[in-house]
Design a protein that fits this description.
alpha/beta, Rossmann fold, Dihydrodipicolinate Reductase, domain 2, 2 domains, seven-stranded mixed beta sheet, six-stranded parallel beta sheet, 15 helices, about 20% strand, binds nicotinamide-adenine-dinucleotide
Length: about 425
């Protein structure tokens, strides 16, 4: 049987990571790529690594006509425009079996809704890429603790965090292009992960009903004059004019519609985690049982002393967003697998081949966007947001946070 042909839109940091994940998957080729920058380089890497005869396409239409499914791995500000081009390609005869979109589905609820509506127009199955829900560690704890859950009841508290020292490209830092700061960029991971972890086994992804959200957004490091200058020099973004939050924390409260039991998911995210590199921490507490995961607890450590530091290899081959090249360093030898990229691609391809949505579809991505935007609303107003209030639900449909409007100076603690 011929390999499934995947096409990438975007050839930057994330696309390269996903290509690494594809090395570990059988029966799928990286058949084509379209990007404003980096497409030739990624196609060459794909060909050299046996990922298939990857071709560079000058348009989304041409790419869509030559692959079985496409993945949107381009910046957040280009989502709607790219999804519109995919929809046009399908209308012009591209026989796509699936459309993938990276997190966040939209910078606002309205944008995420547009993606859902355009996908419906295409009539094509979708997959929303939230890798943390696919992490083997997260899946394994659910499996291992299934008997305890059956005997004692579901988890009541989940805590999820994703932190690192800051993103690699200027557009991430610019709230008007990215959709906010770290809450929009990484809060979406932690909110989704907490919701998933709390969901009783055997129940659908959105079984637990979100009741309320409280959140705080602050600018703790990158608003200080010294770091503002660094940001301006390195990324071309001026936080004296358009600041975004580099720290957020909050709580989503959920209700079990069958039992009425409340559970809570706490999220914490920062771009000011000046330690080894990317750290994911998740834990869950149930009655009489618990789990804890820390992605920096690797069985492999390396040490590079001052004398040997000059010969250090690229730090980012050891750990995503690594901040040091000497001392005692954690190395994660297979980050693409650890973070769930391998499993999310395998899931999407298997589902598309059967003509159905991935485990997480665009509608699910829209629900996560709603929670994330409600968190901005809470931080902005300094109050809990009642998600069961029809007036709030209506308001969220057209809400753009002040931070995303470039008015972060009015609301950020700094
Ligand atoms: N799951 C994760 O943990 C994770 C990690 C990083 C990024 N992401 C997400 O992946 C997406 C891409 O992020 P990245 O880090 O690769 O960004 P990046 O800036 O490194 O790369 C973006 C790529 O998209 C291309 N591009 C830009 N505009 C385009 C357009 N209109 N049409 C076609 N190509 C276009 C660029 O040329 C580049 O090749 C973002 O939405 C981001 O939120 C997810």
């Amino acid at each position: 049987m011929a390999n499934f042909r995947l096409g990438f839109i975007g050839a930057g940091f994330l696309a390269k990571f996903q290509a690494k994940a594809m090395h570990q998957i059988r029966g799928v080729d990286l058949a084509g790529v379209h990007a404003l920058k980096g497409a030739e380089e990624l196609a060459e890497v794909a060909r050299q690594n046996g990922l298939g005869d990857c071709k560079v396409y000058g348009s989304i239409l041409e790419l869509c006509k030559n692959v079985d499914a496409v993945a949107i791995f381009a910046p957040n500000f280009a989502r709607v425009q790219i999804m519109q081009a995919i929809t046009d390609a399908v209308a012009q005869g591209a026989a796509l079996q699936g459309i993938i979109c990276e997190k966040p589905l939209g910078r606002t609820v309205a944008e995420a809704q547009q993606l859902v509506d355009l996908a419906k127009q295409c009539g094509t199955p979708t997959a929303y890429f939230e890798n943390q829900i696919h992490m083997k560690g997260i899946r394994a704890q659910r499996e291992q603790l299934a008997p305890q859950q059956a005997a004692m009841g579901p988890l009541a508290l989940a805590r999820s965090a994703e932190e690192h020292a800051g993103p690699h490209e200027g557009w991430f830092w610019d709230p008007t292009r990215q959709g906010g700061g770290v809450l929009s960029d990484m809060g979406c991971h932690s909110i989704a992960c907490g919701w998933f972890v709390l969901t009783p086994l055997g129940k659908p992804l959105t079984f637990l009903e979100p009741v309320s959200v409280t959140a705080v957004t602050s600018l703790l490091k990158w608003g200080l004059p010294k770091f503002r200058k660094q940001l301006l020099d390195r990324m071309g973004v001026d936080y004296s004019k358009t600041p975004a939050e580099d720290f957020c924390t909050g709580m989503v409260t959920f209700k079990n519609p069958e039992t009425g039991q409340l559970s809570q998911a706490q999220f914490t995210n920062s771009w000011m985690y000046d330690k080894q590199g990317l750290r994911l921490t998740m834990d869950g507490l149930g009655p009489g049982y618990a789990f804890e995961l820390n992605s920096l607890k690797s069985p492999l450590e390396i040490f590079i002393g001052d004398e040997a530091a000059e010969s250090a290899a690229d730090a980012e081959t050891a750990l995503e967003k690594s901040t040091a090249t000497r001392g005692l360093l954690a190395v994660e030898p297979n980050e693409a697998d650890l973070y769930g990229y391998v499993d999310e691609i395998e899931d999407a391809v298997a589902c598309f081949k059967q003509g159905k949505n991935g485990y997480l579809n665009f509608e699910y991505g829209l629900e996560v966007t709603k929670l994330c935007q409600a968190a901005y609303m809470s931080a902005e107003r300094g109050q809990a947001i009642d998600l069961t209030d029809p007036a709030i639900q209506t308001e969220l449909k057209s809400y753009t946070s002040l931070i995303a409007q470039g008015r972060g100076g009015e609301v950020l603690y700094r």
